[in-house]
Structure formats: C-alpha cells, structure tokens
Amino acid sequence: MSKQGITRRQFLQGTALAGAAAVISGCTLSLQKKEYLEPYVDMPEFALPGESVWYATTCRECPAACGIIVRVHQGRAKKVEGNAMHPVNEGKTCARGQAALQALYNPDRLRAPVAQSARGSRQFTSIDWNEALNTLYQLISETDPARIAFFGGDVPDHVLWILETFFAAIGAPPPVIYSTHAAWEGKRALRLVNKSLFGVDRLPVYDLAHADVVFSFSGGFLSTELSPVHYNLAFGRMRGRQDTGGPRGVVVHFEPRLSQTAAPADRWIPIRPGTEGLVALALGRILLDEGWARNTAAAPFFAGVDAKELAEVTDVEYERLRHLAQLFGQAQAPLAIPGSAAAAHRGGYQAVMAVQMLNILMDNLGKPGGLWLAPDTRIDGLTPKTEPASLADVRDLVERMRSGQVDLLLLDGSNPAYGLPPEVGFVDAVANVGKVISFSSFVDETSVWADYILPGHTPLESWGYQVVDNGTDRLVISAQQPVVRPYYDTRDVADVFLFLAQALEPARAQLPWLNVVDFLKSRMEVIRNLGIPGSFALDNVEEAWAYWLGNGGWRSKEPLWSAPVLKRELSQAFNLAPEFEGGTEYPFILYPYESPTLTDGRGANRPWLQELPDPMTTAMWRTWVELNPETAYLLGVQRDDVVKVISPYGEVEAIVYIYPAIHPHVVAMPLGQGHTDYGRYAQGRGANPVQLLGGREVDVVKDLAWLSVRVKIVPTGRRQRLPRLENNAGVDRAREVGFPG
Amino acid sequence: MSTYNQGTDEHRWAMVVDIDKCTGCGACITACYAENNIPVVGEEEIHKGRHMGWVRIERYWEGEYPNVRARFLPIMCQQCGQAPCEPVCPVFATYHSATEHINVQVYNRCVGTRFCANNCPYITRVFNWFDPVFPEPLQEQLNPDVTVRSRGIMEKCTFCIQRIRRVEEDAKAAGRPIEDGEVQPACVQACPTEALVFGDLNDPNSKVARLAESRRAFKLLEDLGTEPAVIYLKGGDAHVV
Fold first, then answer.
1. What is the pTM of this model?
2. Which pLDDT value is given to residue A729?
3. Which residues in chain B (106-125) have CB-CB distances under 8 A to chain A?
4. Architecture of domain B4-233 in CATH?
5. Which fold has domain A184-373?
6. How many other CB atoms sit within 10 Å of the CB of residue A362?
7. Is the minimum CB–CB distance between A387 and chain B shorter than 8 Å?
8. Pairing state of beta strands A124-126 and A114-116?
C-alpha cells in the first residue's frame, strides 16, 4: 500500500476535487461547505406546492428487500407504500416497513460526525466531515492492513461489494458480515441444508400460494422470517382460493408456543422445544410405512426410526401423528416449511434437513405448491463474494480483538453489543482494539464503544441496491434511491469508501468511481451482461438508469427459481435432538423469539412500533415472560408479577403474562427491548433475553443456538402492569379456570 | 338499488375484512398511524386505555391447552348506515355524509362531550386527552392532507376520506367513473394478505360487492340494526386432529 505517495496537503486537495465533482454530478457528496443564493421563486425540482411525488426505492428495515414507494411532499417523506411492480411484495408492506420514516425523522439521530472523549463515556463532540474523513483516511493508511477489521450486519449488497473490493485492494482481511437477525431466522441452516442436499448454496422459496396442506415447523414466515410480506401475500392467496371455487389451503403448525404464525393456522400442535426434526422424522416414517410417500429417495434418512418412540419424545400422540401424516400424504400439494426455532439448537441442522425430507418424500420439489430454490444471486460485480460469517467466525474476530491483533475496527449495520450473548465477549474485546469507528445513524449499544461515529444516511436517504436472496421466483435487483435529501450532516457509507479509495492508490484502480451514483450507473452494464431478459432494456445507460429509478430496480422477465434436485445418497438421520444447558435447578426451557414488531431490537427506537400491540399478547413498550397458566399457578405467580428469569449465563426481569398456548415446560420471551442506548423510545425499558443465552452453536451450521438454555423463574414480590391493549378480563385465562386472580 | 350506473356521485363505500386471511401482523395499524397523523401516547396512557389507534386487532383465545386456537379480528369504525354515534352529538360534529355514505367527524365542531364514544357499540372512537406530541423532527412525517387533532377532540377511522376525495376529484376532473380498487385506504393498501378489501357497494361488479355476497359474510353486532359498512368474512374451519 502506498503510504508515502500522498501528503496531507495532497489529500485535502483530493478532497476538494472530489467535492467539486460531486457537486457537478448532482450528488449529495459535497465535501466543501459551499453556499448558494437561491432565488426566492425557484422551487426544488419536482417540488410543486401542494403536490406530492412518489419515489420508488427498497425497504431496508429487514433484508427481505421489499419494493416501496415513498410519498414525498414539499421535500419531506410522508408515507411508505408498497411498490405494486415489485415481485417480492406486490404493493404490500408490513408495519416495520411503514416505520422506516421514523428512522429518517428520529429525534435521536446523530446529526453530524462525532468524536467520543472516552469510549462508553457518551461525551460526544461534533466534528466536521473533513476532519472525520481525514481521521479515517489516516487511520486506514497508517494501520497495518492485516490489523484492520470490518464488522457489519445487514449491510446492503452495493456497500458490501464496495467494502469487499476496498479491503481486498488495501490488503486487509475481508469484512466480517454477521446479522443477528439472520441468526434468529435460521438462514444459515437453511442455506447449508440446501447445499448439502441439492448442491446449491441458495435459500429455499416455498410456493405457499399454491400449496393445499402446509406443515410449518416452528417458523415465523408470517411475522419476521425470510420474506414476511411475500409469505403473507402468498398465505392470503392460499386462503383466497376458496372464494373462486378452489380448495382452501390448510396449515398445521408445530411449535412449543402458539406464535403469530401459528395463530392463523388451522391447527397448532404444541411440541417439546427442539423436537421439530423428530416430529418430521416420525411423520416421514409413517408416510413411508403407509405407502403415502411419493418418492422414496429419502427413505434411507428415515431408517431405524421408531415413530411410536418419537411420539413420546415430542409430546404428540402416535395416533395423531398418523392422522397428520395421512392428511399430508394424501394432499394434492403438501408443503413442509422448517422454521427458525427448528434450526436454533444443537441438532438444528439435521432437524431442518428432516423437515425438507418431507418435501422430498412428497415429491413436491420444483412443483406448484412445493419447495423451490431461490434464483442464483451470486453475480460478479453486484453481490459480494464474502460469505456471511458464522458465529464461529465472529468468535475468531472477537478473539483477534481481545488479544490486541486489531488496531482499527470499523462497524456498520449491526449491533453486536446488544444482539450477541455477553458470553461471546464482544464488548470486553473492544477495549483492546486500537481505534473504533462506527457508521451508525444512532448511538446504540455498539457505537457507544466507538472513538468516532461517522453517521451514514438512513435508508430513505441512501442510494444502493439489494439482490433479493429469497421470496420470489424472479431474479430481482432492487434499487434504492434517496427519496429526500439527507436531513442532517450525514454521509453515505458507500460514498465514504469510494472517496477513500480515491486517496489510496491500490484501491483507486479497483474503485474508480467518484461517488455512489457513478458506481450504480456502471452496474447497468453488469446487469446487461447477464444476458437475462428483464423488465427493461439496458443498452443505453441513461435510459436504463431512468427505468431503474422509476421501477425501483430491475427484475428478470421469466421465473429464475429452480427445482431442487437431490444430489446425493442419503444416510440415516442423526443428532437431531436438542440439548439444553442448565441442570435440574433450571426447570424451564427458555424460548426467546423475534418480536413481530421490534424484530431483533432494531425497531425499538420507532415509537409507532413501540406502540404497536404485539399480535398475541397485545402488549407494548415492555418485556414480558409468557407462562402457561398451570406453570404460573405452580410458581404462585400471577399476571403482572415481576419475576427474575435466571439462566446459567445471566438474569433479567420481566413481567408475567399468562399465555394459554405455550408448553408448560417452556417460558417464552420476545426480543427487542432492554436497550441501554439507542434513543429515548428504546432505552431503559424492558429486558433483553439475549443476556440469558450462552454462546452455544448449532452443529455444522456454527450459528447461534438460541434455543439451548434452561431458566428458573424467581418472583420478586413486585408487580408492574404490562401496558397492553387488551383488558384484564381478556388476559386472564387463569382466572377463568379458577386460579386466584 | 344501485345508483352507480346512473351517473350520480353517490357511493356506498365499504370494507371487507377476511378474517380467514388476517395474520394479525399489524401493518394496517401502523399504516393508519402514518396516514392519519395518529399520536403515540406512551406507556402511562396505555394503562388508562387511551391507545389512539383507529384500527385494533382483537385476539381471541379459543379452547384450553393443548387444544388452543387464536383468532384475530381487526376492528375499525364500522361506518354504520344507522350510526348510534350520530344522533347523540349535540353539535353535529359527527354526521352522515350523503355522498360517501360514511360517518364523518368534523374536528372543528367537536366540543368533546364524548357522547358518541359512549354510544358506539364497537368502541372504535378515540379521544384526544392531550395535545399530541411529535418531538422534533418527527413532525416531518405528518400527512399534510390530514388535520392534527388537538386536545379535547374525538376522532375515529374515516375510511381515509382524504384518499376517497382525491380519487373522486381526479375522476371528476378526467370525466370518468371511479374504477374499482382505485380508492385504497392506508390499511387496505398495506395489508400484506389482502384480508382487507375496499370499494363501492353501489357498484355491483366491485370486489367488495361480490365478497359481500359470500356465504362467509357477516357483520359485527348485526342485530343492533346499525347497518355497518364493514363486512367480515368468517374464518374457515378445516377440521384437523
């Protein structure tokens, strides 16, 4: 890396040059403070008094990449609406997507770059971008590249591609990309199972709309997992067939707790936690024995399985399993969907495989209503080559940090200090890192450990794209554009790195673009070179660019999902059973779940989401612990009692909610609250159940096994009303069955 | 009798709620907050039952563990044809609109007696106990088409009348009839399962008119004679052991 080649003076000259270029191209990257006198009567482009305009972009509240159209009025974003042309969500949105506005206009956003006097002190002083970028430049150019680390979460594809290219060029290790949300949705297990069975490292896509009997195994495909808006749409269509003379789709949901996804199902079947794979094994055995299986290629997997024995282990009677197997086996279009909790314990990999085996047995691969594989999203020049990290990879990074091998840590799009179990040791390890720079828009639990925070734009102010990795049959490159000018003095992370590349000789050749818009325009050619007929012609860059922005991206004309083909001989299933930490003094299994409103906690600073009632409990603003009425009775606790939930790893306090639809040996807690930072709406309320988890990993997958600890419940003697929409009479099943209320 | 084809402006706007499709996700609620400038009231007010949402999703438990089912029932103003809220308003702040056939709330007439809320059998009216607070710069999210209500004012679902009016005006200006599906209240537009459908009952070919004929159709508290404009389609019941 050329460190001598550039002096500070030359660097600043480069800054000015890039700034001027940016102003000319109309981009937001103005590196010099320039002021223009605007004539009084000139309106900004497209801003007509009293008229709204709508801009197509991509929702980034979760990685599903729904297309949205944002209503903008007088230069202010007013309403998030779905993009009807977008194959993922077809004009629909979820509550979290609506709340994207409250990231943009959040009162607790960082308004400019800041330096922190001491890490964790929360004593910030504003700095200007020239100083911020100079500091970043100096740190990157003066640090041994091998000792630079980038830790990211749900970073959009274009940023990741730029980062990857940048770090490769300067000789630094590739970015470590770990999304806690992905761990909670079990994405890694789904990919690896597909890789093992079908030889392709892609996510599954379920043709839910055309299925007629769906067996769902502890999934949240209607709340937070994979592509929730898409699957809600498909669910509606599956049910809607009855209005046009078709069969009404039936859903049976297996889970220890009746979740939001279980609620609209026709039947919820409580099982012991972590036994989804075992239920699938038993069902598969019966399907084979009764001759209902349509493809016996998967038979070896079920060798030696005793369905009656498994009935005992899973808490589902054998007769019932047999009836269910018959329902599934005789359906026209049966579909099995493995959910996140199936993948979240030690044996999760095999458990997910067992559920997919049911699809193989019923021969629905690549058929209407069956299992498909998402289009290949590995595209040179568009998507990063860096694999998403496993928890094991994160541990490696944390170990490097702890042992002082990291001199510069860059953080973006993730909140590991909040989202990873304390046992992983992220916060402790940060103390041994030379310098820490975060690009977060907020002071959160992680960025509070940074020396500098160089706030990026919020998604509605950003350029970019996301290649949709699951949820639709098309190849979709979903475009992101700023719907409003940046509200504060923030800067696009992609622009920051493109700018640094200009000053760092080895990176400049790889990243010759002056700003992110130039980079994105250059991608039109990359898409054209795919040679896939798409939603618009790509021959002329400017024309393509207009369509790109107007349509919210590019998509293939034809479906590009593919039928899975079993690529190997199967052998007997093994190691499907869960394993829980904590001895007999911990009588309950902790069942944490992503909040349908706050997901993994990222939604907690949006007041709309805080005050959106949880679908199942109607609770808001706090953290509760769900107890079966019988369990509550045996513990002598009532609704609104505050209890300590104690695991071998930690303890948190939560308010008791008597939940009539949960296995008596299980206590469930939603994620999302328990923030110590992250703004006025998030901090200081509720508890974070991640504090109770150890760092156990799922076999093979090496991701967080979040369903693997036992807990005990200790009453504190205090009471606190849980804010909820529902009145007390509606809450207390306990009272109705004669328990003291 | 349908007046739709007779070239009049009269509409019977109606909503269909298919509870067999509702997954309780809450997209309708948040979309409504965004469209209609509904304030967030905070934990303490929630305890007092002062959640301001214009649409709520009721969740009903059925049965005992392990044979439990949960059902979702989204409830918003039913836009009654014979509305119990209307005759009790001393200042005509709540009245029946002759052209849209919905119940209209005139904010600057309302004096806050809360009689209407008291008389609503569906409990869909909410009252502004305080002036709304939008900490800087959250006020930027406010929809310019909708009044921000002040303290002492009653409010409720309007079927997004600002959206109805906009489409009506656009259609009128273009000299064409309103197409089915052209008017979409924010909740209907967001609803990811398409459980919510909106349209004109006076148009016999509209989707709502057809769904209203479904054997699954019913109305809430129908026996009160309120003639709601919200039609529910009941959840299917596949018998699964």
1. 0.91
2. 59
3. none
4. 2-Layer Sandwich (3.30)
5. Dimethylsulfoxide Reductase; domain 2 (3.40.228)
6. 27
7. no
8. antiparallel
